[in-house]
Amino acid sequence: MESRSYEERHADALEVFDGFMAGSVPDPERGARAMRRRHGALGSFAFDVVMGDVWARPQLSRRDRSLIVISVLATIGSTEELSVHTMIGLNHGVQRSEIEEVLLHVAAYAGFPMAMQATRVVEERFRIIDGVERLPERKPSASLGDQERRLRAHDVRKTLTDGRCSENLDDDYKNFVDHLGEVGAIAYNWAFGDVWSRDELPRRDRSLVVVSILTVLSRIDELAFHIPAALNHGLSRVEVEEIMVQMTIYGGVPKAVEGVLAMKKAYSKIDARS
Question: Is the pLDDT of residue 2 over 80?
Fold first, then answer.
């Protein structure tokens, strides 16, 4: 991180805040002063650290940062912040359908209760934006038999592992279930076959979301698999590190440190194979 004066950092924060609000606040500086008056030092840090130090960084797009933040807030059940960041995400170019895809991954990796809670918050924000009491009906998931689910899951696993899983579908499924039992069968069919295979969000973005969820949950063993998978799906090492930078704010520094250590361990194994 390059050294900046306070004035430069604050100017970056004002630019980020303006993007948060899609230019709807005529005087962002007035918003900064109001935050400091209302919340004191925390308000100052929320502006100059959260926005000026983290959100202003160029290594990830604002859209990507919003995907990370929405994933984390839904996972930890921070409902008020999730409502605000749903609006901010839309202002950053995240599509409603993409937010819904994020919540499918929250269901798979953090559990249905957290995903359903988050869905209610997001839908309420959509209703406020639209000025309606009820949203249009959504399209349900495809009705797939288990063989088709496994075919899709196998395709996902080949990209997740960069082709290191078994080339034969039946062998790959058997190996997975032999290792994890009935949990493996559900994970294979649902997480990989039903969720990861959907077209509504690119796999690169799905990896961004999943690494974020696993980091805030301290799922170190899962990160050992999903950080290399994220690289296979097109995220760069710099972009993975930025997930951890964003985590300092929305998951806390200890979670970010755990993530960095898991990231470095994963990279060491990758480099040793090279």
Answer: no
